Amino acid sequence: MTVNRPDAGASDAFSAGTLVAIGAGPKSLSVAAKAKVMADLGLPAPRVVIVDRYGVGGNWLPLGGWTDGRHRLGTSPEKDLGFPYRGTPHRTHAAQINAGMLEYSWMAFLVAHQTYTEWIDRGRPNPHHHVWARYLDWAAAKSGAELHIGTVERVRVVDGGWSVDFRTSDGGLDSVDGDGLLVTGPGSSDEPLLDDPRVLSVAGFWDAVSRRAIPASSRAAVIGGGETAASALDELVRHEVMSISVISPAPTIYTRGESYFENSVFSDPTGWPSLPAAERRDVIRRTDRGVFSVSVQENLLADERIHHLRGRVTAARRVGESVALTLGNPGRSAAEHSFDLVVDATGGRPLWFLDLFDAESVDELELALGGRPDLPRLETAIGHDLAVEGLSQALYLPNLAGFAQGPGFPNLSCLGELSNRVLRSAVDRSAARTGAKR
Fold first, then answer.
1. DSSP 272
2. In a structure prediction context, what are the per-residue pLDDT tens digits for the chain, which is 438 residues long?
3. Max CA separation in the chain (angstroms)
4. Of 145, 306, 360, 399, whose CB has the highest number of CB atoms within 10 Å?
5. Are 187 and 310 in contact (CB under 8 A)?
6. Cα 344 versus chain centre, distance
7. pTM score, whole prediction
8. Minimal CA–CA distance to 66: which of 170, 190, 161?
9. CA–CA gap between residue 206 and residue 29 (Å, rounded)
10. Which InterPro entries match (predicted)?
11. Which positions ≥6 away from 6 have C-beta within 8 Å?
12. How far apart are the C-alpha atoms of 37 and 59, rounded to whole Å?
C-alpha cells in the first residue's frame, strides 16, 4: 500500500467530508487536483482518497490489461484534467480555481519536462498511452493525491456513507470510509466470450502482444466497434494475418465525428438534458460508442485484409481447429462464421462495480431506482451532479452519465466539468449535513 498525504491547504473548518474514489485514472485525478486547488484557496473541499489495484494510470499501461501502452490516445491531450476550464465548484472563485488547474494541465506537464516546444513543432500529436500515464502520475504527485494501492473486494453502506474494503499487495485487508463514493474505470479486461486458447480477451490479446505470441492466422476476427477494438485492430494488422473481420452490430465501421459541432456537445453539456431521448441516443451512437478515431481509420484505410461483418455475436463454439461465431441481425436469419483467431474487444461490463457491493448496498440502490439495478435504470437515474438520484449516500457514476447528462462525462472530453459537478455536490452535501453555510 502506498499513501501520499497532501499538504494541509485548509483548516479543518473548511473540510467537506471525505470522497472515496475507485480507480486512479483521469476522472479521479481531476477531482483530487481541483480539491487541492480549492483547499489551497481556503475554500471548502473534500478529502479525496483514491484506491486502485495498479496505482496511477494503470489502465494506460500494459499492466492494466487494456493496452500495450504504445498506441496513441484517441482524444487530444489538451482535453486534460482541467478542460474545458469553464465554470467552477464554487460560485465566486472561478478565475482562481481555473488558474490553479492550469498548473495541472498537459501544457504544464510538457513545460516541466522541457518537451513543450518539440510537441508544438511536431504538430501537437496525440501522445502514446504510456506518456498519458506519465502525465497522470505527474499530476497525482504534484497534487499530493492520497492513494491506496490495493484491489477493492467489497463496498458497504455505513452510517450514511460508504466503506471500501481492499486487499493490499502484501495480502492484508484494509478499508477507507467516506461520505461519497466515485466509481471510475472499465472494470476487468480478462473475460473472453469463450474459454478457448483461440479466443483472446482484451487483456489476453495485449499479453500475447507483449510476449510476441500472437499466432499466425488465416482468418482473424475482432469483435467490437469502439476504441478498444480499434486499438486491437491497429495492432493486429502489424502481425501475420491473412484476413481480419471486424464484427459489430452497426451497418459499417463509423469514424468518430471530430468537427466543431460534434466536439462542442462533448465539451459543453449545458443543453444536453433538454434533448429528446432518441436524439441523445443517436448522438452517442454516431460520435462515441461503436466508432473508431480518425487516426485509426486513416491507418487502416489502405489495408485490404480488413472487412466488416455486421451482427451481434450470440454464440461461440469450438469446431475442430476453428472457432464458430453465430451472428444475429434483426429481421435476418442467424449466420455462422469460422475463424482461427478471435479477439473479444467489446470492452468492459458497464455494471462491473455492482459485483463489489454487498447485499445491503444493492438493496439501497434498488430502493432508489425503484427496481433491480440494471443499465437502463441507472443511466436514467444519474443527476446533474453525476450521482444516482434518490440515494442518500452520494454515489457518483460518471461512466454511466452519458445519456442523462452529456456524452463527454464517460470519457476524457470534459474532465474539468466533471470535477466541478462532483466537488460542488460534495461541498453542498457536507454543508447540508453540518448545517454550515457556504
1. G
2. 344 544 434 334 357 899 999 999 999 999 999 999 999 999 999 999 999 999 999 999 999 999 999 999 988 999 999 999 998 887 789 999 999 999 999 999 999 999 999 999 999 999 999 999 999 999 999 999 999 999 999 999 998 899 999 999 899 999 999 999 999 999 988 888 899 999 999 999 999 999 999 988 999 999 988 888 888 998 999 999 999 999 998 877 777 666 787 888 899 998 999 999 999 998 888 777 667 777 777 777 778 899 999 999 999 999 999 999 999 999 999 999 999 999 999 878 899 999 999 999 999 999 999 999 999 999 999 999 999 999 999 999 999 999 999 999 999 999 999 999 999 999 999 999 887 444
3. 70
4. 145
5. no
6. 18
7. 0.92
8. 190
9. 25
10. FAD/NAD-bd_sf, Lys/Orn_oxygenase
11. 36, 39, 143, 144, 145, 146
12. 26
The amino acid at residue 160 is: G
**Which cell is 354 given?**
455492482
Q: Is the dihedral of CA 267, 143, 147, 385 positive or negative?
A: negative
Domain ranges of the chain: 12-187+349-434, 199-256+293-344
Burial of 70 (0-12, 13-18, 19+ CB in 10 A): middle
C-alpha cell at 318: 469450438
The strands making up 173-178's β-sheet, listed across from edge to edge, are 173-178, 161-168, 146-158, 45-52, 15-22, 180-183, 394-396
Tell me which DSSP letter residue 72 carries: B
- CA 430, CA 19: separation in Å to the nearest integer? 11
Of 118, 416, 129, nearest to 269 by C-alpha is: 416
Tell me if 127 sits within 8 A of 115, measured CB to CB: no
DSSP tally for the chain: helices H, then strands E: 14, 17
Q: Which residues contact 404 (CB under 8 A, 6 or more apart)?
A: 273, 379, 380, 381, 382, 383
Beta-carbon neighbour count of residue 63 at 10 Å? 17
CATH class belonging to 12-187+349-434 = alpha beta
Euclidean distance between CA atoms 65 and 235, whole angstroms:
14
Q: Which three cell numbers stand for residue 241?
A: 494475418
Q: How far is CA 292 from CA 209, 256, 288, 341, in A?
A: 21, 6, 8, 21
Same fold, 12-187+349-434 and 199-256+293-344: yes
Q: Which of 77, 31, 27, 24 is nearest to 51 (CA)?
A: 24
Torsion-angle region of residue 23: left (phi > 0), alpha (psi -120 to 50) or beta? left
- Residue by residue, DSSP assigns 369-403 as HTS---HHHHHHTB-TTSBBTT-SSEEE-GGG-HH
Tell me the CATH number for domain 199-256+293-344.
3.50.50.60
